[in-house]
Every structure is written in structure tokens, then in C-alpha cells.
Amino acid sequence: MADITIAAATVGYASGSTISDFLLAGETILAGEAIYLKTSDDKYHLALNTDSEKATVAGIALTAATADSKFSALISGKLTDSSAPFTEGKLYELSSTAGRIATAGDAGSGDFGTGIGVATSASTLHVAISASGGQVA
What we know:
Shape: globular
Order of helices and strands: EEEEEEEEEE
Oligomer: single chain
Helix content: under 10%
Structural class: mainly beta
Distance between the termini: 16 Å
Number of helices: 0
Number of strands: 10
Radius of gyration: 13 Å
């Protein structure tokens, strides 16, 4: 997959976005990484498209966290990154690398399709998460 590099130090969000605070991390998470809620421990972990549960993205981390600490995540709206990692008009999806986001269309056979959003500029991703639950043939 063609993963993009979101700079943790420059991640933010635009007005009107939906943010969730005080989420409990189950492992180390960096700002800009995709997360999911693990049902067995009720904590947030790095999302991954190779497993059905892990591909159910809950949001994108806005702050970093270590295991058992609190963090914030963008649930929907505009994720910003002044390092400009996005290509305007491109679709982005969950990667097969834990926590990463990739350009859409690169998922491999057996991966679970989870759309993350579309870039509205080089520095803004309009996040509208869509976990299909389906696997790539």
C-alpha cells in the first residue's frame, strides 16, 4: 500500500469537526494514526485492515498516548496537517500497516475495506469513515 506520512507534530482539525476526548489507549498511539475500539479490553488500539474488528475505525488520533493513558480523536470532519501529506481529490483508506492511512485502491486480497475520507486540499482530509465489513477478493 502507498501509506501517507501524517506528521504527528502538525496534526489538527477544523472548526465543526466531531472530536471525542478522554479515550483510553490500549497501546502507544501517535497523533494522525487510525484507531479502533478493541472489545476484549474496551480500549483504543491501532486500526489495521487485515482483521475485521481492527478495520472498524473509530477515528483518527489528535493527541499521542501510551497504554492506559487518555487521548483525543477526530471522529468526523476536517483533519488538518500543515506538512501537506494529502493529494487534493484523492480518496484515502485504512492501510495494512497498523494505524496508517493509504491512498485508496491499494488494498490487497483478503483485506477489509475501510474508507477514511477524501482530501479537499494538500493539508486537509475530510474524514467520513466508512467500514464496509467486506473483504477484497
